[in-house]
Amino acid sequence: MQTPEGLNALGSVEVITTNPQRDAASAGVAWGAVIGGAFVIAATGLIMLALGAGFGLSVMSPWSNVSETASKAGITAIVWLVITELVASSIGGYLTGRLRTRWLTLHNDEVHFRDTANGFLAWAVALVMTMALLTAAAASMVGEAPASGQASIGRRDAPEVRGLEVPAYFVDRLFRSDRPASGNDDAVRSEAGRILAYGLHGDLSAADTAYLAELVASRTEMSADDARNRVSETVIALRQSVDDARRSAAHFLLWTFIALLFGAFCASYAAMIGGRQRDHVQFS
Asked: Are the CB atoms for 7 and 13 separated by under 8 Å?
């Protein structure tokens, strides 16, 4: 029989007689405490995000221009995200450690490891639950709405070939005329927008560029050269805006990764603290 030393409620050394069969049967994961802590982490995080949105602290647009206001808004959103993750993970991790049953037959080192692991599991379960909830909410909001950039030929729903929908750009291209229509400005603008959207995936063809220039010239009474220059400038500005949005999104995702790492550490450490207090261990 092994007799590892532990600390009792008064801090004095006590000898605990272990039972190997009981140690083998003891569960390493307190799932009740882990799930409870995970719900607390998820709920606290959502509440703090809602609070931050109410005060304008968690609002950031990836389409921000080079302005001091947009930059400050992005920094504020990142800081609030980190604070939210730290607070929610710490509260949930602490409750995970406090709510688990006491392991009487285990050495303190093993108890601390299990508390840390349980806190990490609570953080992981909360992250999976939150992502599943947000994904389900986004899917329900989208519903069966038609995808952007798609059109129909002769009927309301988009034509399909083996489950693939035909993009509206190719429909416009099919019925394109050498003489752009002079009526229905909304239809012309929509077609031009679809051409530009398709051109973001690669370089615009010479035919697309010439057709856009003809549309601009017919609507603005500009010369052909000026219309081509405006098309080129617009395409360059559009691609620059998209690149800026991608960089902003990548920057925000990087800080989200860092915030989640901090949350995992706080949940694990707080669970260990809660477990120590659960076992009435005095801090040295």
From this structure: yes
